Amino acid sequence: MIRARRARIVATLGPASRDRVQALAEAGADVFRVNFSHGAHADHAATIAAVREAEAKAGRPLAVLADLQGPKIRLGEFRGGRALIGPGQAFRLDRDPTPGDSQRVCVPLAEVFEALRKGALVLLDDGRVRLRVVRCGPDFADTEVVEGEALSDHKGLNLPGLSIPVPALTPKDREDLKFALGEGVDWVALSFVQRAADMAELRQLVRGRAGVLAKIEKPAALDVLDEILDLCEAVMVARGDLGVELAPEEVPVVQKRLVRAARSRGIPVIVATQMLDSMTSAPTPTRAEASDVAGAVYEGADALMLSGETAVGDYPLEAVAMMSRIITRVEHDPRWPELMDAEHSLDDSDADALVAAASRAAETASTTCLAAFTSTGTTALRMARERPLQPILALTPRLATARRLALAWGMEPRLVADITDPEEMTPLALKTAADLGLASPGERVLVLAGLPMGSPGAANVLRLGHVPRR
Among 121, 110, 130, 125, which Cα is nearest to 155's? Predict the structure, then answer.
């Protein structure tokens, strides 16, 4: 199963799709997100097993992304599950666990009141309700309703412009992480990252057993973005919560900044949230949604993510197929390479110089495939950062590496036997490319590797080979 497109698709699994993984992979999904905000461990174990079964049938690596819930701050409960409020009225937030009403409700997390200040804005239910703090103390906040008419149990709470002093990894996250690593997931996403120390803690716990990914959904993270990205192996533009605390016109600007920063570092970047949101309940997307997906492809994002569309939607297969069609159409636009290359960035290291040379050599008409021998995935990712128009055949003896690379732009990862003799590289690359239909007899394949074999990121050998004519 070879992808005819370069950008990858992340599909969230849920009640609508966990028993349709094989069909989703055939429709175009490359990475499967398991959302630990919902469901029991037994459900997640069955979901991960389904991905592994689909991978065996597909004949290509498929990745599992474990998305930790993080410190999502929520309200307590209301009597009857719901309360009506209105602009101009007083409304109190407090620590009293008694079910709330139209006058007050509990906020269980004490750190919220530590962060609040007079005049601060409090957003509830993804910004549908807006409160302004009039007076506050260590266990209460008296507010005035600015906008909103109703609240219900456990709605989310955001404090734009304020940093809440809570750890990014909750006790639940730690239990979920232990379970996910035991199940052999390929990527772990940390939610609500606010500081570099959050990613440092996750890396210490993961210890290389999975790739670590930062979800950027708090404006505070933008102030220390470079420090955060230095500690992660992939990043997600999580536009949902990010869009709650930022003005709508700021979100596209932040998206571009994040995609550019990730591409500069050569780490995969996912654009997520509401990409084809209307397909949760409709068989086709809006024109604006199609343009949104296309815009991320023109920016050169590694992957685009479907959330509710595939987790709980009525048309999960159609959503994946539609996203694949949009990506493929954009990548056939003659202007796509030029626009995507506008985000190009390259370091001045010897390895990057060699990768740049390989990319330029690949521009000749007879070159149809680039092959990168890689142990950790670093060499292949350096090649992907160049955004060559030919597919990148990532050859690795490590299944974990092959699966992680399923997230990366333009990558066709495949498992091969470990090679100790450098003279075996080119024949193996040529045979694999030919067997997969990536190169025909007489066509050129560029082979990139590092010597000694298995040295992480030591791309120092570039070879040219031609598929033998039969």
Answer: 125
Give the pLDDT band (50/70/90) at residue 352.
confident
Q: Evaluate if residue 350 carries a pLDDT over 90.
A: no
The single-letter code of the amino acid at 300 is G
Structure confidence at residue 342 (pLDDT): 62
Contact 412, 8 (CB under 8 A): no
H/E stretch holding 123 reads strand 121-124
Rounded distance, CA 403 to CA 389, Å? Answer: 22
Phi and psi (nearest 5°) for 341?
A: -70, -15
- The answer to whether the CB of 232 falls within 8 A of the CB of 212 is yes
The label of the residue with tokens 């994946």 reads: 320
- Report the Cα 288 to chain-centroid distance in Å: 22
The CA radius of gyration of the chain, in Å to the nearest whole number, is 24
- The domain spanning residue 211 has which CATH number? 3.20.20.60
Share of the chain above pLDDT 90, in %: 79
Tell me the per-residue pLDDT of 38-50, one tens digit each, with 9 for 90 and over: 899 999 999 999 9
**In this predicted model, which residue has the larger pLDDT, 17 or 453?**
17
Residues marked as catalytic: 33, 74, 215, 273
Site of tokens 């997969």: 436
Q: Are residues 20 and 102 in the same domain?
A: no
Question: Alpha-carbon distance 48 to 187, whole Å?
Answer: 12
| 17 vs 14: CA distance, rounded Å | 5
Q: Is residue 336 part of a domain?
A: no
Task: Clarify whether residues 259 and 138 are in a common domain.
Answer: no
Q: Is the pLDDT of residue 453 over 80?
A: no
Same domain, 263 and 393: no
Could you count the other beta carbons within 10 Å of the beta carbon of residue 275? 23
Residue range(s) defining the domain that contains residue 150: 79-158
Q: Are 279 and 317 in contact (CB under 8 A)?
A: no
DSSP 335-377: THHHHHHTT-----SHHHHHHHHHHHHTTSTTEEEEEEE-SSS
| Domain's final residue, options 102, 132, 158 | 158
